[in-house]
Amino acid sequence: MVQLQYDGSFEGLLTAVFVVYEYGYKEVDIKPEGAATTLLFGEEETIYTDADKAWRVLHKVEQRWGKAGVAILLRAFLSAETQIENHILEAIRLMVRMPEMNVLENFGHQAIAHIQKAAKSVSREVHRMKEFVRFERVGEVYFAQLTPQYDVLPLVIPHFKNRFSDQQWIIYDLRRCYGFVYDLEKVTTFTPANKQFGKLIERATDVYEQLWKTYFRHINIVERKNSKYQMRNMPKRYWRYLTELKD
């Protein structure tokens, strides 16, 4: 058994897949740094992300499965579910062994079933983030914070860039402590040194938040309130993103 430890990025995983074929490894366990375990029998190897090797694997996948197949693998990866790296490796191994088949449609295979289920869960989370994220004004910038179950921020950024192209904004993932900022020209990712970044910004939005809550209370018709219907269409865990429903 060879345990390959990579940096946790999608490019790093693809590099690890390339290394599996480069050295002809048979029994492999791919894990992100921090999740690796000490092996009693076997060896450990650190994988350093190589853009060229990652691109070669990605290009091969796109040739066989198209952009839709790449999207499925990426979304499954972003689920960060246990063993998802090894499921993706197994799917690519099947692709190489059976080039004439679209093995991603073989739901009877355990690895494929895991990948498709994870990708579907991430897709639902992406859709809900697009629906429920709310921006609050902080000076000249609009700020939104979220705590998604999956690491979907990279997948929702293009949506907000297109929709709010005339505004400067920041979207920040409180759980993973990183975000994206748009300056009217380009989107840049950032990781603040202060892990309390989200809470500091939140304090600055209190005035706008109270104004919006007051407005919401005035337009809300208490007699027509239907909590069960509301929760069915908007699960309670997303309420934290809606200014009017906080507290």
From TrEMBL:
Domain annotation DUF4130: ranges: 83-244
Matching Pfam families: DUF4130
Cited InterPro entries: DNA_repair_put, DUF4130
Protein origin, superkingdom: Bacteria
Protein name as catalogued: TIGR03915 family putative DNA repair protein
Organism the protein comes from: Capnocytophaga bilenii
Lineage: Bacteria, Pseudomonadati, Bacteroidota, Flavobacteriia, Flavobacteriales
